[in-house]
Amino acid sequence: MKVFLINKGWVHYKTGCSCVGSPKYFKNTAFNGWKVILKSTGLMNAVICRNGVVKYRARTVEELRQKMAEYGLITED
């Protein structure tokens, strides 16, 4: 998922506390207010948020790609 986000222009800007699985936070300046959080623990692997509100929880790269395209956060190649 990390490679997918980086390839789509998203940038890793911080890492959360290791006590909750060291979530990695990604943002893209073209989409102000949106962020994607990747976690390596638990059932969900990615969370798409807008202004602090969870919009979708994805378990696979394909789910993440579909929802990001639906929200207009990536362009399809």
Description:
- By secondary structure, the protein is α+β, with helices and mostly antiparallel strands.
- Helices cover 21% and strands 32% of the residues.
- The chain has two helices and five strands, in the order H-E-E-E-E-E-H.
- A hairpin with a 7-residue loop joins strand 3 and strand 4.
- The model has no long low-confidence stretch (mean pLDDT 91).
Topology (SSEs and partners):
Elements: H1 2-7, E1 11-15, E2 24-27, E3 34-38, E4 46-50, E5 53-58, H2 61-70
Antiparallel strand pairs: 1-2, 2-3, 3-4, 4-5
* Beta fraction: 25-35%
Q: Give the helix level as a range of percent.
A: 10-25%
Q: Specify the structural class.
A: alpha+beta
Q: Note the overall shape.
A: globular
In whole angstroms, how far apart are the ends? 17 Å
Return the average pLDDT rounded to an integer: 91
Please write the string of helix (H) and strand (E) elements.
HEEEEEH
Main beta-sheet strand count, sense and barrel state? 5 strands, antiparallel
Question: What key phrases describe this protein's structure?
Answer:
77 residues, alpha+beta, five-stranded antiparallel β-sheet, 32% strand
Question: Can I get a quick summary?
Answer:
This protein has helices at residues 2-7, 61-70; strands at 11-15, 24-27, 34-38, 46-50, 53-58. The chain is α+β, with helices and mostly antiparallel strands. The chain has a five-stranded antiparallel β-sheet with strand order 1-2-3-4-5.
